[in-house]
Amino acid sequence: MSAVNITNVEILDNPAPFLSPFRFEISYECLDSLKDDIEWKLIYVGSAEDETYDQQLESVLVGPVNVGNYRFVLEADPPDPSKIREEDIIGVTVLLLTCSYLGQEFIRVGYYVNNDYDDEQLREEPPQKVIIDKVQRNVLAEKPRVTKFPINFNPENSEHPENSEHGEQPAELDNAAVDDQEQVPPPLDNQSE
Question: Which spans does this entry mark as compositional bias, Basic and acidic residues (predicted)?
Fold first, then answer.
């Protein structure tokens, strides 16, 4: 069982212009007191074929964290369009929200993001060069993909590791499944451990 669980993520100001900052309201619970900070990161996937185009938009440390419920707003600058290939700006990509403890990632929330022109004429007849000021992003907030990784939250007790499994555990926020093979738990805001 994880010491930290995300209970809700709300994407504020969505849809928004491509060049607007991202704002995520993150609610989470801590079931065990943690001596060190947890790290939240927001990563924009710039290309499905080449991870060198990925951009870390923000990284924040929160903690030390005591038992209880928490909520904060994570704000991040938009991706730098000059670091994205022109052909990858318009279309669907992925935004990753991750959380780590002591350098061990234990949760990853992935969102599809659709970038397209806000003007119908530009959508029908796109210009050869992207007009970034006319691009709107829409994070598909209702269909996140949540992956949990078991980690040892208490490395000083290494003879009794908290988790003996070494694989990922897919789950979902809310009631939306990405494909037919996933199991969908009840909505996180009603979930109890």
Answer: 157-169
The answer, yes or no, to whether the previous bond of 15 is cis (omega within 30 of 0) is yes
What spatial distance separates the first Cα and last Cα of the chain, rounded to whole Å?
Answer: 9
Compute the chain's Rg from CA coordinates.
18
Q: Give 57-101 pLDDT, tens digit per residue.
A: 999 999 888 999 999 999 999 999 999 999 999 999 999 999 999
Q: How far lies 128's CA from each of 85, 122, 123, 125, in Å? A: 13, 11, 12, 9
**In sequence order, what E strands does 2-77 have?**
4-12, 16-17, 22-30, 38-45, 55-62, 68-76
Both tokens assigned to 100: 């780590």
Residue 89 CA: distances (Å) to CA of 35, 85, 125, 141, 170: 41, 7, 16, 19, 28
Q: Do the beta carbons of residue 82 and residue 121 sit within 8 Å?
A: no
Distance CA 91, CA 41 (A): 23
Of 69, 47, 43, 83, whose CA–CA distance to 193 is shortest? 69
d(CA 124, CA 172): 34
- Condensed to tens digits (0 to 9), the pLDDT of residues 23-53 reads 999 999 999 999 999 999 999 999 988 999 9
Which SS3 state, helix, strand or coil, does residue 172 take? Answer: coil
Q: What is the pTM of this model?
A: 0.80
